[in-house]
Design goal:
Elements: H1 2-13, E1 23-34, E2 40-51, E3 62-68, E4 74-80, E5 82-89, E6 97-98, E7 104-116, E8 123-129, E9 148-154, E10 169-170, E11 178-179, E12 183-187, E13 190-191, E14 197-202, E15 243-245, E16 251-255, E17 260-272, E18 275-289, E19 292-293, E20 301-304, E21 310-314, E22 325-331, E23 336-340, E24 344-348, E25 353-361, E26 369-377, E27 385-388, E28 395-400, E29 409-415, E30 432-436, E31 441-451, E32 456-465, E33 472-473, E34 477-481, E35 486-487, E36 490-491, E37 495-499, E38 504-505, E39 513-514, E40 520-528, E41 531-542, E42 547-549, E43 553-556, E44 561-562, E45 565-567, E46 571-574, E47 589-590, E48 596-604, E49 607-618, E50 623-624, E51 629-631, E52 637-640, E53 642-643, E54 647-650, E55 663-666, E56 672-679, E57 688-696, E58 708-711, E59 715-717, E60 725-729, E61 743-745, E62 753-761, E63 767-777, E64 782-784, E65 788-789, E66 803-805, E67 807-816, E68 822-826, E69 835-836, E70 839-840, E71 844-854, E72 859-868
Parallel strand pairs: 11-18, 20-26, 34-41, 43-49, 51-57, 58-63, 65-72
Antiparallel strand pairs: 1-2, 1-18, 2-7, 3-4, 3-8, 5-7, 6-19, 8-9, 10-13, 12-16, 14-17, 15-16, 17-18, 21-24, 22-23, 22-25, 25-26, 27-28, 28-30, 29-31, 31-32, 33-36, 35-39, 37-40, 38-39, 40-41, 42-45, 44-47, 46-48, 48-49, 50-53, 52-55, 54-56, 56-57, 59-61, 60-62, 62-63, 64-66, 67-68, 67-71, ...
């Protein structure tokens, strides 16, 4: 007990912040304070969110680390004390939200001043904490104890004047109630004191933080590792494919996923003079509750610009507080075309143009709301583009292939998926453009295109940017005979040339023929618009075929062996012979049924050599262990073997009465295989073996069921187990006595109960017996629950559980504390062990509730209290 006591004391002394998951988000931002001595002085703030009432504490101090962004060298680690804390709580949720969630954060601020010299690449500032709040829905299932990293970037001098920068600072309201499967908006908007253009995107949340006695630890060296996304979510789609972020405003909109906690990280890029100078991040675990919002929620626009002219739309809110719907569709002159009071709306347009769609819910009632959306009907708008040139460091050319039936295409916006902002660069906002990638890899290029009628759509293509063009050779190296030639083979996109032009026919062809007289290497050079690749083929020249075959040998009949030869040949052909598995390989496997001769021809082009191998066969001795048998546990089996060999032996001799004889008595403890091995002093020198399996039926363990209780007039189905044949006694009140599951019907209490005995048999005659006591009560169906229990793991009264009398099934057994909080809820009444989430609950009185169904199908609910004793 002493080691366990020491461990408990050790854990109790750990800081509470180090023993739980409580961090719910954070960000890092800074403000330029001045430029003393040519350096740059920044006031840096790390803002950390923690769930309310967690009982945990913020790290104090926290470590904030600064790295050179270019070479990742560590500049310094600073221990920063917690400056202040505040609480954010949504105290007045919208009355039109059903079951509004509790939105509450404790926020801690760490502030310090850093003076840094200008560098070309700038700096990364970061801090790490353990642990994030547990049970995050968009991570790999059951992944826990994942830390977090909050970071920001200070720009370098690559962009003139960029270090004189105050970071973008997120200003969006964090007190937002989000309901599962309902439309929502969540602002991650930011402001920038320098007036830089801001561009927003979802990005990966980072892991981080080291558990070491709760003490502050320096930040690990970047790059930082992404959290393990799972369940179909990614950093760029942390809430699924129905939720988007506006790249210009930072507003997140869409239909929320199912209930749970989701980690969402938004990156905001600061763009100055068309260049991204720094990227800041905000990381937040958003709780999506099982609530609904009564609202008229529509898309801002519905574009029927592709093929269909049929509008099908429904309210994106599914709140039960919505009692009426009123849809109105009008043309631009205000003339009403259609209306509906259904939950959804559909309409087939017969003309093109702009139309207004309006939805009113709960008109003139509580939670009334309305919304208007614009409908564009200009079918025949199809975005598309082509590209060429996929070499890293060389321009990739993009060409718009979009078409439109109405209006003209007049706007383009390209996203080349390379981490560089292009929204402000005019060269990238035209139909045909080019872009030079900085590194190889997969890129998802998106072109957003619009026409003069306001239709807007996107085309997406997946590109594989490469360091060099693909060059495929028909073969790598080969061997030829001196009198032969061979045709080189290569293919790829671009100009292909072979070298050296020695002993080569038609060297300008992609597949020239060569006839080298000595071993020679030929090089293939591929040039795709300046993107180059080289590969080679080595042609080895032989003057003759060298062939050495294995010596003739003898094997036992039915055995196999591999025919072995040593040769420099390229092709092999064995003359077809009995038992030869392959005839065109150098070392085939042979299974001769009699004495055999195997002949081989080996060749390199027109050069050939021949050889032969003779295999003689000898028969195995005969070995017969007898037929398999089955016995009952603890009984004997008789083995009867036979052989024509001069010597024999049995395996597993410890369970044989006479292992020196072919006939012996076996008494195995379990199913056993006995192997009879026989050998001859002449003929085939290898032993032959045969196996007899003695199957031992397991010890019969009859089971008649657990003792139970019934009420007078109730039927009870017995259920025995352990064998295949059954016999019950006495026959009193039983529907049958020779089946496993007879029904007992009690119209008499038989002195308060009956004890039934069942004998269990197997077809081999193995047997056992068991009994069950059935108590018979003259009361109605009832559930009994103890008034106290002591979960001290002594095997006595450790669980609080219901005891059912006259009950068909216990459907639910629930336990609550004195504040009405549900602590235990099980469908089968297994019983509560006095813990919640593995944590023991305090001694005291708890309330229980049982929901059950009796044998008549009647539902019943019982409540009471029980005392937990420690």
């Amino acid at each position: 007990m002493k080691p366990l006591l020491c461990l408990c004391l050790f854990l109790a002394m750990l800081p509470r912040s180090a023993r739980a998951d409580h961090i719910t988000g954070g960000e890092l931002y800074y403000t330029l304070m001045g430029t003393p001595g040519g350096n740059y002085q920044y006031n840096i703030t790390v803002k950390v969110f923690m769930r309310c009432n967690s009982g945990r504490q913020f790290n104090n101090p926290a470590v904030i680390s600064i790295f050179d962004k270019g070479n990742r060298n560590r500049i310094q680690d600073i221990e920063v004390r917690l400056a202040r804390t505040t609480t954010l709580q949504l105290n007045d949720p919208n009355k039109c939200i059903t079951d509004p969630p509790l939105v509450c954060y404790e926020v801690g601020f760490y502030e310090f001043t850093a003076t840094l010299p200008p560098t070309p690449n700038g700096y990364i500032v970061a801090s790490q904490f353990v642990f994030r709040i547990g049970g995050i829905r968009n991570l790999i299932p059951f992944y826990s104890n994942v830390g977090t990293t909050y970071m920001g970037e200070i720009p370098g001098t690559e962009v003139p004047g960029a270090p004189a920068n105050s970071s973008a600072r997120f200003t969006g309201n964090d007190l937002v109630a989000v309901c599962a499967n309902n439309a929502f908006t969540y602002s991650f908007a930011a402001t920038d004191a320098d007036g830089d253009e801001l561009r927003y995107a979802f990005c990966d949340a980072y892991q981080g933080g080291t558990f070491r006695m709760g003490a502050a630890e320096p930040v690990s060296t970047p790059p930082f590792q992404s959290v393990p996304y799972g369940n179909g979510f990614t950093g760029s789609a942390p809430l699924g494919d129905k939720v988007r972020i506006d790249s210009r405003t930072g507003l997140i909109t869409g239909i929320a996923p199912s209930e749970g906690i989701y980690v969402v990280t938004v990156c905001v890029s600061e763009i100055r003079n068309g260049k991204v100078i720094a990227t800041q991040r905000k990381d937040l675990q958003i709780f999506i509750a099982s609530c609904t919002i009564a609202a008229a929620t529509l898309e801002p626009e519905y574009n029927l610009c592709r093929d269909s002219t049929r509008l099908v739309v429904s309210n994106q809110s599914n709140s039960p507080l919505i009692r009426s719907y009123n849809w109105e569709l009008q043309d631009r002159s205000g003339r009403q075309l259609a209306g509906s009071s259904e939950q959804g709306f559909a309409y087939d347009f017969r003309d093109t143009g702009l139309f207004n769609l309006k939805l009113v819910i709960n008109r003139n009632g509580e939670c009334a709301d309305s919304n208007t959306s614009l409908v564009r009907v200009y079918p025949g708008f199809k975005p598309a583009f082509d590209f060429e040139g996929l070499c890293n460091g060389k321009p990739t050319r993009f060409r718009d292939g979009s078409t439109t039936v109405y209006g003209r295409i007049n706007q383009w916006q390209w996203d080349f998926d390379d981490g560089i902002a292009t929204s402000s660069d005019e060269q990238y906002n035209r139909p045909n453009t080019e872009y030079q990638y900085r590194s190889a890899g997969s890129r998802q290029v998106v072109m957003q295109v619009s026409n003069s009628n306001g239709c807007r759509d996107t085309a997406t293509r997946l590109l594989a940017i490469i360091d060099k063009p693909a060059l495929n050779l028909g073969f790598r190296d080969t061997t030829i005979c001196i009198s032969d030639g061979v045709r080189l083979q290569a293919n790829g996109s671009g100009a292909l040339r072979w070298s050296p032009l020695v002993e080569m026919v038609n060297p300008e062809a992609p597949d020239p023929e060569v006839r080298p007289t000595i071993t020679r290497t030929y090089y293939a050079d591929l040039d795709d618009n300046g993107c180059r690749n080289r590969d080679s083929v080595r042609i080895m020249v032989e003057r003759e075929v060298q062939l050495v075959a294995m010596a003739d040998t003898t094997i036992c009949s039915g055995d196999s062996l591999r025919l072995r030869i040593a040769s420099n040949a390229l092709r092999y052909q064995w003359q077809a012979a009995p038992g030869l598995e392959q005839t065109d390989v150098s070392n085939p496997i042979a299974r001769p049924v009699a004495n055999s001769i195997y002949q081989l021809t080996a060749s390199i082009g027109n050069c050939q050599a021949t050889a032969s191998i003779t295999i003689n066969t000898l028969p195995y001795p005969i070995s017969n262990a007898g037929a398999d048998t089955t016995i009952c546990f603890g009984t004997e089996a008789f083995l009867q073997g036979s052989t024509n060999g001069q010597n024999f032996s049995w395996s597993n001799t410890q369970s044989l009465s006479n292992p020196q004889n072919l006939q012996s008595t076996a008494r195995p403890a379990g199913t056993t295989a006995y192997i009879l091995t026989a050998t001859n002093n002449s003929g085939c020198p290898k032993p032959s073996r045969d196996t007899v399996i003695v199957t031992v039926r397991p010890l019969i363990r009859a089971f008649a069921g657990r003792d139970t209780s019934v009420v007078l007039g109730q039927s009870l189905q017995l259920q025995a187990a352990g064998g295949e044949l059954y016999q019950w006694s006495p026959a009193t009140a039983l529907s049958a006595t020779d089946i496993a599951n007879p029904i007992a019907r009690f119209n008499n209490n038989y002195g308060g109960g009956i004890r039934y005995q069942v004998k269990v048999y197997t077809p081999e005659g193995c047997a056992d017996s068991a009994s069950i006591l059935v108590k018979i009560f003259a009361t109605g169906p009832q559930v009994f629950v103890p008034t106290a229990f002591s979960p001290n793991q002594d095997g006595l009264n450790d669980l609080l559980r219901p005891i059912a009398v006259g009950i068909s099934r216990v459907e639910r057994f629930s336990v609550f504390n004195r504040w009405g909080q549900l602590l235990y809820n099980a469908p089968d009444g297994r019983g509560w062990d006095g813990t919640v989430g593995g944590q023991p609950q305090v001694a005291g009185v708890y309330v229980w509730m049982v929901q059950a169904t009796d044998f008549q199908g009647r539902k019943m609910v019982q409540k009471g209290t029980a005392t937990l004793i420690r």
